[in-house]
Amino acid sequence: MTQDRFVLDVIEEANAKRRTERRRFMKMAGGGAAALGGLSLLAACGDDDNRDVPVATPTPTPTAVSEADVLNFALQLEYLEANFYSYAAFNQPIAASLRSGTGTAGSVQINTSVTAGQPRGVTFQDPVIAQYAREIAYDEIAHVNFLRTALGSAAAAQPTINISGDATGAFTAAARAAGVVGSGATFDPYADENSFLLGAYLFEDVGVTAYMGGVQLLSTPAYIEAAAGIHAAEAYHAGLVRTVLYRRGLSTASLITATTQISAARDSLDGTSNTGLLNQGGSRDQGLVTSSGAANIVPTDSNGIAFVRSPQQVLNIVYLNGTSTNGGGFFPAGVNGNVRSS
Prior knowledge:
The protein is an all-alpha fold and 342 residues long. It contains nine helices and two strands. Helices cover 49% and strands 1% of the residues. The relative contact order is 0.15.
């Protein structure tokens, strides 16, 4: 049996056994009430892990999210990252064969100043950073391919993605909101290496926290293993980007300042005043230095555990909208799939 056939068989079997396996997984994890709350499309997934699920309430019963829904949500984020790195490293979007699926397929919005058919990638001066960019691009494209293969005909299409750095681009909107650039300035992540690294920094930390939150909504062992593997890859990417930025920030202080501003903006958007899936409290996102000026390559809590975000909190960030409406920011029309809005 091939690996692809095995994964597809697991998906078919999971559709029949999903509820039973999920209950068993939640009992083993010791967090049944919190996990059940996390399976709601309408829940913010940020309540206290010890809360009981109400037995009788006038509020309609939340709709459970299937494992395919969770994988499709991850796929939407991989579309975003894969296209960003593909443009930065290879001057082109991901292959058309990796973009089709259920839902409304969209285009990639890139700088309007770029000549059609001849997108401008990053002109790397440091060959090591250029190699890092290519490696991460290959990884992100592989993640798209893997998730699409696992989902088969259930794979959601690539939605409209805005990774432009011009005046109306999502990167500029994010940088202005964070205070990285002024209200009338633009932020182009393809302009130079430092800008590219800041663009990567914005995405990578979110990817790590997203997978850490998403894996808690899975119960099939094959899915958990795959999600954990991708989470580890994203963590390597994030650690690499943070390390390079910190090293460069020793001589270019504005890079350190920018990461602090971006982290504060993500914290503000994602709604971390809620306790979160691991009860880690608010103000969790962190820049590259501590309040005392020490290096902070790995953003963790007091137990040395990486931070986690619910799907809702991730949408708040990528939509650049703290109320997570049906789209905006890097996904102008929203993501495809059932996990897409509040």
